[in-house]
Amino acid sequence: MSECLFCKIVEKKIPAKLVHEDELTLAFDDIHPQAPVHTLVIPKRHVSAVQDLGLGDESLLAQLLISCTKIAALKGVQESGYRVVTNTGRDAGQTVFHLHFHVLGGRPMAWPPG
Questions:
Q1: Inter-residue contact 46 to 4 (CB < 8 Å)
Q2: CATH class of 5-104
Q3: Among all residues, which ones are annotated catalytic?
Q4: pTM, rounded to two decimals
Q5: Exposed, middle or buried, 53 (CB in 10 Å: 0-12/13-18/19+)?
Q6: Can you tell me the distance from the alpha carbon of 45 to that of 25, in angstroms, rounded to the nearest whole number?
Q7: CA 8, 45, 31: angle at the middle one, nearest 5?
Q8: Confidence of residue 71 (pLDDT cuts 50, 70, 90)
Q9: Which pLDDT does position 112 carry in this prediction?
Q10: Cis, peptide link before residue 112, omega less than 30° from 0
Q11: Rounded distance between C-alpha atoms, residue 94 and residue 98, angstroms
Q12: Which residues, 6+ apart, have CB-to-CB distance to 108 below 8 Å?
């Protein structure tokens, strides 16, 4: 996906403040944070959204969530609490069409969101 912003970050063509990387995922701080902790966790392989995952992607999905928990620990919000969110589609607020999970924390979160 030559035009995908997040693919360019994976390829190191665009700089980002990297927080975590493993064989399947990459995590970096959001450039427009909505909380004191706001880190994005993405698959290195281009996947547009949740509905594009299928059979065979179980290990990728597990690794994405494990990476989210690692970010919470690294950022010091594991004990106080954090939110993991993914937006799917324009009406849900997805603006970059590369699957990503927001790890948000460092302040009380309201409910319902949005």
A1: yes
A2: alpha beta
A3: 100
A4: 0.95
A5: middle
A6: 8
A7: 45
A8: very high
A9: 86
A10: yes
A11: 9
A12: none
Helix (H, G, I), strand (E, B) or coil at 26: strand
How far from each other are the two terminal CA atoms of the chain, in whole angstroms? 30
- pLDDT at res. 113: 78
What confidence tens digit (pLDDT) does each residue in 24-35 have? 999 999 999 999
> 54, 87, 86, 82: which is closest to 70 by C-alpha?
82
pLDDT at residue 96 tops 80: yes
CA–CA gap between residue 95 and residue 114 (Å, rounded): 15
What is the pLDDT confidence band of residue 95, given thresholds at 50, 70 and 90? very high
Given pLDDT bands bounded at 50, 70 and 90, which one contains residue 1? Answer: low
Residue 18: φ, ψ to 5°: -70, 140
28 by DSSP, 3-state: which?
A: strand
